[in-house]
Amino acid sequence: MPAHDAGRIRDELRRRGALMGVGASPMRIFVWHGYLLSGTGSNIYARQLAREWGRAGHDVTLFSQERRPEQFDLGGVAVVRPDVGGLLPVFVLDRYEGYEVKLVQDCSREELDAWVEANAGALRDQGPADLVFVNHVLLGGPVGAASGTRYVVKAHGSELEYAMRGNDELSAWGGEVLAGAAATIVGSRHIRNVVREVCGTVEGVHEIPPGVDVELWRPASKDEALARLIAEARLDPANPGNRDEWLPDEGNPARIAAFLAGERPTVVYFGKLIENKGVQVLLEALRGLDVRTVIVGFGDCRAELEQQAAGLDVLFTGPLQHRHLVHLLALADAAVVPSIFPEAFGMVAAEAAAAGCPPIVADHSGLADVARGLEEDYPPGRGGLASFPSGDAAALRDRLRDVLALRGAEREALRAAARRAAVERWSLTSVARRILAVVD
């Protein structure tokens, strides 16, 4: 065996042993997620966690409504798409081809019970498992409970804030299924508090951040990152007239190449284009700054935001996938997370940090946890660059001005510190290991 192959195998075995735990045996794990495997934080979380456990040597089956799972690197895990009869209960209304989409709170209990049973039946049909890991208190918790197997629930802010808060019936249902879970995982102190507020006192709650794939999100030179971003954009499917909001904009390769040519400070936002995400705060903050900004995403507010951006140097790209974003973030000078609504965890900020792109986040909820982690790793006197008071466009403008003014060694020190914080605090490998440890 060549020496480099032997070394690679030893490194992989060490990695697997670290994730599984000393003396641990492989487990059969079902990961259930009721939606797709890209686009939103919980979608990506389910996909990456399943892959990480599969790569560690566990027998993993991933359940979702993804029609094309083969487009993702899932590490060889098995995939199942339960037949849910065409109904898709959601927390935020979006278009899902082939489904009747309804808000969870607008569904009847009979509809929700039938949907839960369709998913739980798919889990039972796959035979026994050592552990069922489900996303979302509702409707993941009921699916786990009906599976007949020990289950762990990952609580997200979306179901708690958009569907359950203020709804006594859904909140009581959430408390019931969490009481029966082997553990409840929350991504931040904020979500721990929200679980208590919405579902009542729950035992066995563990605070574990969602996790970042630090192998995927990596620093790169600007020239290399731009070339790779354009190459990925050329692989995008056609989208004449941008008629499909779920696809990248028509002509992106040429638009991106022209917009990002030359040396100018570059700021990135990526996420949904809805009011709660605070993109309007970012656009206001950009006025008076010599900066170009790339805004990635789709949502109901896009046309309004494009009007607000008039006179600014802003490029709207439509939604991009991780294969694009890893390169876009690597070439950017700052990423802004201006959400004005509580967030379970600042995943997009942690991903930007892993790429060496300093994030600037609104200082609240789960975003504040990311800010505090960055502050601890940033060079002396630079901690204040990590966050700004929520909704304060003037303060965000000041943070952007200060970050973009850094040059040479000072700029590289901040970028290296952001990367270090992501690797040491939020790597996916450590998160996957910690989840299994709480139910071991």
Q: How would you briefly describe this protein structure?
A:
With 440 residues, the protein is α/β, with parallel strands linked by helices.
How many helical elements? 17
Number of discrete domains: 2
CATH superfamily of the largest domain: Glycogen Phosphorylase B
How does the overall form come out from the CA principal axes?
globular
Poorly predicted ranges: 1-18
Please name the CATH architecture of the largest domain: 3-Layer(aba) Sandwich
Tell me the Rg in angstroms: 22 Å
Distance between the termini: 36 Å
Mean pLDDT: 93
Percent helix range: 40-55%
List the strand order in the largest sheet: 3-2-1-6-7-8-9
CATH class of the largest domain: Alpha Beta
User: What proportion of the residues form beta strands (DSSP E)?
Assistant: 5-15%
Instruction: Describe the largest sheet.
Output: 7 strands, parallel
What does this structure look like?
The structure is a single chain. This protein folds into two domains: 3-207, 3-Layer(aba) Sandwich (Rossmann fold); 222-426, Glycogen Phosphorylase B (Rossmann fold, 3-Layer(aba) Sandwich), CATH 3.40.50.2000. With 440 residues, it is α/β, with parallel strands linked by helices. The chain has a seven-stranded parallel beta sheet, sandwiched between helices. It contains 17 helices and 15 strands. Residues 1-18 have low confidence and may be disordered. The protein is globular and about 60 Å long.
